[in-house]
Amino acid sequence: MESSATLAFPQHPYIYFATPSSNKGCPFWPCKQRNIQSTRLQCNKMFVPGFGEGSPEAKAASNLHNFFNYTAVKIVAAQLESYNPEAYQELMEFLSKHSLDDGDKFCATMMRESPRHKSLALRILEVRSAYCKNDFEWDNLKLLATKMVNDSNTRLMRDYVLETSLAENERNE
């Protein structure tokens, strides 16, 4: 027997519209108070603690920056494999010794390795810039990320409801 459940949650459950008497009592208050009596604050964005001076978007941008480097290395490797096997082999050897986790560090190290490696690094920088500006589908990223979050939330809630309803049925029997 198949069962389904739909749970409705507010779109932004942690938005504070009332002005608290003190920021100390509400550590997640997203806005700074200027004058409680003359200003009523209304914020429509969630405050996200734990990112220091940055933001979740800055963290995502940093990860995308390194991902663009990874993508550029894959593109350059595929290009070299077909028309310059010697340069391809040099790139593969360099990759086996150096991590792609930090794209800038990878390219900086490669530039200092040798003149041939420098030209490979410059090509990688060129490709990552072109890919980011021209080929990466930013709108599709937002759609896919939103779909993944929504699908995952639905699946997790459905699994929980099924699990708890089965446990409830077993207790009642």
Automatic annotation (TrEMBL):
GO terms for biological process: carbon fixation; photosynthesis; ribulose bisphosphate carboxylase complex assembly. The keyword Lyase does not apply. Keywords: Carbon dioxide fixation, Chaperone, Photosynthesis. It comes from the Eukaryota. One of its GO terms (molecular function) is protein folding chaperone. It holds the Pfam family RbcX. InterPro entries: Chaperonin_RbcX_sf, Chaperonin_RcbX. Transmembrane segments: none annotated. Gene3D superfamilies: Chaperonin-like RbcX (1.10.1200.210). PANTHER family: CHAPERONIN-LIKE RBCX PROTEIN 1, CHLOROPLASTIC. This is Chaperonin-like RBCX protein 1, chloroplastic.
